[in-house]
């Protein structure tokens, strides 16, 4: 969850990064008593995300800056739409501008891409989820943007749930059905009863031993469409069935129609481009 504390911490760090010893241009070129009124204007259509982050970028720069008419999270906009109005001391507005734009352009880009994936699976039961493939230090911001675009959040980090992948199984010495089943049953006994256990498989024959160990989710990694459909049939509702790997806007609809419950898409965060938003003086 993107809390006020996380917003302030992240935005303050970005402001310090951008102006570690102050904004020499604004301080030398702009009179101290100058005021400036601006609008955040969309140069292209999309979904908006980062309203409170934008507000913080300006008010943490100068608390006298007023941010109003802010678009709602997830708001669908067209080119030319005004998404916010910002006015106040000119030095502060100009100093906070780039940080505000960097955040809102990035987060709106993620929300827009997520919305496209969500639209592509409409009419199915599949949910679009993000992954841990996020920008270091910005995970809460980027996962918030996924939700603004209509997506779901996968585990936030390694502390949230148990996810056993191929390298984990290799480290456990799980080389066949029997050793895999035994290792996962031991894990199930040692984990708390409220802890989710998701296991990644890359072959159909791995599904039954995993389910017999009592896991809560099975991740079908890089399966063909036919194998995904067969995997869903074998899982048979005994665990959450997730698909990942090779997911694009061209393939996600067909993947959803195999009957999987969740489709995790790393490119929602690591592959989204920043939207073109600008701050125009009025």
TrEMBL record:
One of its GO terms (cellular component) is cytoplasm. Involved in the catabolism of quinolinic acid (QA). Its EC number is 2.4.2.19. Residues 23-108 form the Quinolinate phosphoribosyl transferase N-terminal domain. It comes from the Bacteria. The keyword Transferase applies. Gene3D superfamilies: Aldolase class I (3.20.20.70), Quinolinate phosphoribosyl transferase, N-terminal domain (3.90.1170.20). Transmembrane segments: none annotated. It catalyses: nicotinate beta-D-ribonucleotide + CO2 + diphosphate = quinolinate + 5-phospho-alpha-D-ribose 1-diphosphate + 2 H(+). Pfam families: QRPTase_C, QRPTase_N. Residues 110-280 form the Quinolinate phosphoribosyl transferase C-terminal domain. Belongs to the NadC/ModD family. This is Nicotinate-nucleotide pyrophosphorylase [carboxylating]. Hexamer formed by 3 homodimers. One of its GO terms (molecular function) is nicotinate-nucleotide diphosphorylase (carboxylating) activity. One of its GO terms (biological process) is quinolinate catabolic process. PANTHER family: NICOTINATE-NUCLEOTIDE PYROPHOSPHORYLASE [CARBOXYLATING] (PTHR32179:SF3). Pathway: Cofactor biosynthesis; NAD(+) biosynthesis; nicotinate D-ribonucleotide from quinolinate: step 1/1. The keyword Glycosyltransferase applies. Keywords: Glycosyltransferase, Pyridine nucleotide biosynthesis, Transferase.
């Amino acid at each position: 969850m993107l809390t006020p504390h996380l917003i302030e911490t992240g935005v303050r760090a970005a402001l310090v990064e951008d102006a570690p010893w102050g904004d020499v241009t604004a301080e030398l070129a702009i009179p101290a008593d100058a005021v400036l009124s601006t609008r955040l204007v969309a140069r292209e259509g999309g979904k908006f995300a980062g309203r409170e982050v934008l507000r913080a970028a300006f008010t943490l720069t100068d608390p006298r800056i007023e941010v109003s008419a802010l678009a709602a999270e997830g708001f669908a906009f067209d080119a030319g739409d005004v998404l916010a109005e910002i006015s106040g001391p000119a030095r502060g507005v100009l100093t906070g501008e780039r940080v505000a734009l960097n955040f809102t352009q990035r987060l709106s880009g993620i929300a827009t891409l997520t919305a496209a994936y969500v639209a592509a699976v409409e009419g199915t039961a599949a949910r679009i989820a993000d992954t841990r493939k996020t920008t270091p230090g910005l995970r809460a911001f980027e996962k918030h943007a996924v939700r603004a675009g209509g997506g779901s959040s996968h585990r936030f980090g390694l502390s949230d749930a148990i996810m056993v992948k191929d390298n984990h199984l290799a480290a456990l010495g799980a080389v066949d059905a029997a050793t895999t089943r035994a290792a996962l049953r031991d894990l199930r006994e040692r984990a708390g009863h409220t802890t989710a256990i998701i296991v990644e498989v890359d072959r159909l024959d791995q599904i039954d031993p995993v389910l017999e160990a009592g896991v809560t989710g099975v991740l079908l990694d890089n399966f063909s469409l036919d194998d995904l459909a067969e995997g869903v049939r074998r899982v048979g509702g005994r665990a959450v069935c997730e698909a990942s790997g090779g997911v694009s806007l061209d393939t996600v609809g067909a993947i959803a129609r195999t009957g999987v419950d969740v489709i995790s898409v790393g490119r929602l965060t690591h592959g989204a481009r920043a939207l073109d938003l600008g701050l125009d003086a009025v």
